[in-house]
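**User:** My hope is that you can spare some time for a protein that puzzles me. I have put the entry right below:
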Amino acid sequence: MAVRPSGGGTAAHLVGRTGQLVALDAAVSAVTGGEFAAVNLCGEAGIGKTSMLRALAERASAAGLLVCDGRAAEFERDVPFAMYADVLAPLVAAGGAAEDGEVVSQALTGRLVRHGATSSVGRARIYAAVRRLIDGARAPGVALLLDDLHWADEPSLELTEYLIRKPPRRPALVAVAFRSEQPPSGVADAIVHLGPAATRISLPRLGPADIDALLPGVPRRRRTLISRASGGNPLYVQELSRCRDDTLAALVDNDDVDVSERHVLTGLAREITDLDEPVRRVAYAAAVAGDHASIGLVAQVAEVPTDAVVGAADDLHRRGLMDVDAARLRFRHPLVRAAAHESAGPAWRVTAHARAAAHLRAHHGPPQVVAHHTERSAQPGDEAAAETLIEAGLAFTYPAPAQAARWLGAALRLLPEGHPLGGRRPTVLLQYARALGLSGELERSRDVLRELAHGDDRVRAEAAAFRAVVARLRGDIDEAATLVTAQLAEARLPRTSAGKLHVELAAIAALGEDDDTTVGHADRAITLLAGDRPPLSAAAYALRAFGRLYAGDLDAARRDAAHAAELVDSETNAALRPHVELFGPLAWVRMHLGEVTAAAHHLDRAADIVERVRDSSAVPYLLIVRVALLTRLGHLETAVHLAEEAVTLARRVGSVEMRAMAEAVALRPLLLTAGPSVVDRLTAGDWPRSRMWRRVGRLNLAVAHLAAGRPESCLEIVADPAPWQPGPPIAVPRDVVHAIALARAGDTTGAHRYAARAAALADAAGLAYEQGWAGYAQAYVATAAHRHDEAAALADAAATRLAAARAPVEQALARHLTGIASARAGRSAAARDAFRQAQEGYESCGASWLLSVLAQHTAAIPSRPKRDSRPPATGTATALSAREREIAELVRAGLTNQEIASRLFLSRRTVESHLARIFTKLGVRSRTELAARLTGDTPTL
């Protein structure tokens, strides 16, 4: 006896899901309560993810939410925004800004090319438009339900991640379902970062009692066989319930047989091939045509009349294999479509794709869908097919560069190498290179651009300019400079064009920390432009300010930065879009001049511009600068989040250099929140190749080594003979770190010298931030020399200056040091007050690790005042040998004896012997007391 459960029905798959349904109810309640929520459903194939999404759709709709659902498909992963074609249609129809609706409609249809011109509508603008459409929906909230995300195309995945990381202002629910073994990492990571706003559900297999409830009319012995053979997978239960008892028994008795997706596919394929020929042909055609294919398209692909398709679709529906919705056909489960697709045969599929492409082209179908079918059916020499692929490639260069590059490459391969493409071959090659570059294929992009080195003047110039961009993204600063210099050598260049090239050369020199060359090219650009192009002139002034800042000419840097700010403030966003990168050096300079409000204003303006600009390397670069500013302002959690976003974007454009830049800047906020465990983050990864960002990363790494109790490693970095700029923003922090490292190593004389030099440089510059840091270093050295009253006064003064500089983390650090010095001077009340202020500062900034260190110091304050008038000889870290100190620091970092032994290439017994002596010398009885003693002996940076 065979039992046939309802194919794909919700009820069949929701047995044993009571707890999960309660979680879905809670997510819907959160949205109706005015919040944003995300649901992550995962599990193996056939486990019931789709049924859970249907249940969620019912609940969301009943709550009044506008439900927008869609499903990715295995065979359309190359069609940009394929999943969102169904999802966004209700939003576009529901209203919102007309401009946003047009942008989204263009993205869905691919009609982004007009009269042969390439659209500049990029991903950033499309994603922002979708978010604004959600905000403008008339419903009290919106529910986006996205199924089979493991098969989604890249732009759809990026859009999903964007909506989760930057939720709409209107209450909304984003639910995604994917296979556990194929998680879309970016989306999954974004959901993890939502914290309590996310509901993560991993669907388990059904137990025997669940299967009993699922198959109530089936004899117990048969239910047991089905349960054991299926392993509790609902889809496998459904498929195996069609098998005979002897087949089930054979499956159960054969230990080598594992009922799996392949087994189910084989069973479904057999079921499809057993269909009558007309029905079977329609199933094959629907599998090739794609999810939600129209009846007319399926009829064309199957080469049968429309009436025959209708009859066959009804038959497939009765068999639980297909759904019919608004004259469109959709298989009940992706495995059913996969079985039909495989059964159709590869040769038949090629001709079927050709018929689908012809039909869609004649009926003005979306270019990306036409291109999908064309690519799978085109024959060498087919000029019409090449034109179709070129049209789609040009349309999607910015919204979906990886897909665009594939289509343009396919078009070029279809025709002989010398084929002129109507005289457009160089232009198509240039756009192919651009798409490769935007999709992260920098090496291939560079190879294609080299082919254009001998083209006509316009194409050659554009190719050389993009080659320079690619070189910068790869970190090849010298190559970028050579390319731009070669362009500059071209005869009869207009003044504006020459000025633009000098701006580019100034930017390249700034990355190399060649201050004189930076200023020289910026000077030349300012002269050539003569105010004719304000945005370019603003970039030149910003870069000249950058060079002068690091050369130590702060007054001139202030004047240039102010002039650049006046120019950008007088321009529209549209005029600034091609030059949006200028906000990076401008904000950087103003931050280091202490003008943090102005720096934040510039980065806010840049963020507004890039939201509507086409995809550009400026986006991760501007995020990196913002991370540095947020760290300075004490917004540590946001800084870490944006640094991760910058790393993701850098990976997306294939820039190892920009990813390394982001990781270099992220090291500081990560240290302050997570502690010294991040010390190996850059050591194990790629360093930036540009000198400026490499120096930023190395200085942050030096600080991390200090925090980890490795002053020798810190000194190796700051004492590096490689040149460091003389300007205060570099020289003062370097000397501060150098002084503290020497103090930690016991050289208070050398430490005093570097701290005094830092103070002299900072005072001469008149920069409050640098003055505060220098004062902190002097207080630190005084503490190490046991001049506690002097140290407390110096640290208190440093905190005041750092407060004026709007540097709350550093201000709290100075208060922390004030507390340590006061406690050692025997002034417990003053110590407690300073520690309280430090705690408030750390808490407001989210400096979790510093809070944990502070807690140890606070607990160590004696209940009665006790003046410390003599330098301790024993009971402190100074009594330890170098090896003992090294082991003690590793204990403080949380390593076990075995881990310490492995790291230092010692035996575990040797480590234990050293540790016994350490305990004796320090007068402690546990690892916890040891960690507290070390932390109390030396204040943290």
Observations:
- The longest helix spans residues 656-674.
- The domain at 17-202 is CATH 3.40.50.300 (Rossmann fold).
- Residues 1-12, 111-120, 864-874 have pLDDT under 50 and may be disordered.
- Strands lie at 36-43, 66-71, 142-147, 172-179, 198-202, 293-294, 322-325, 328-331.
